[in-house]
Structure to design on (155 residues):
């Protein structure tokens, strides 16, 4: 899935993403980054609404995992499994007063284990960390830890 295809997909299938102005910065399994601007996500204090940060982080993790699963299934005719956020924890470090980027912190060994479990049982869970940073800097704003569930359509 290209950057353009992913933007179209999430804006169409998850309408809040379009309202939030979520954009794709980088789409690969090595580096996966989504972002949004301050204005459509601001609160009464002029900083980013906490719910927008949470939504950006959760959609970033979901999109990354969807990309991973899509790449694994390209050689087969298997239907795309259901993916959802099963549990999550967000730690807010400071207010965000600019655009925000969400970056997946992936663990290759964990992804391999997740995929092997999914192939064997038709269901699996995968933990992903997402770091939220200020616009063009590496200034950390929040940290998200999510566990995503994956279920085969055949189950």
């Amino acid at each position: 899935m290209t950057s353009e295809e992913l933007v179209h997909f999430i804006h169409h299938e998850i309408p809040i993403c379009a309202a939030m102005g979520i954009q794709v910065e980088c789409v690969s399994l090595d580096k996966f980054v989504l972002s949004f601007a301050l204005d459509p996500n601001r609160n009464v204090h002029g900083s980013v609404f906490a719910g927008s940060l949470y939504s950006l982080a959760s959609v970033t993790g979901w999109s990354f995992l969807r990309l991973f699963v899509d790449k694994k299934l390209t050689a087969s005719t298997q239907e795309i499994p259901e993916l959802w956020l099963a549990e999550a924890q967000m730690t807010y470090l400071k207010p965000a007063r600019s655009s925000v980027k969400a970056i997946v912190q992936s663990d290759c060994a964990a992804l391999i284990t997740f995929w092997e479990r999914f192939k064997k049982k038709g269901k699996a869970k995968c933990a992903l960390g997402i770091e939220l940073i200020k616009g063009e800097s590496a200034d950390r704003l929040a940290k998200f830890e999510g566990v995503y569930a994956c279920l085969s359509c055949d189950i």
User: Anything to note?
Assistant: The longest helix spans residues 50-73.
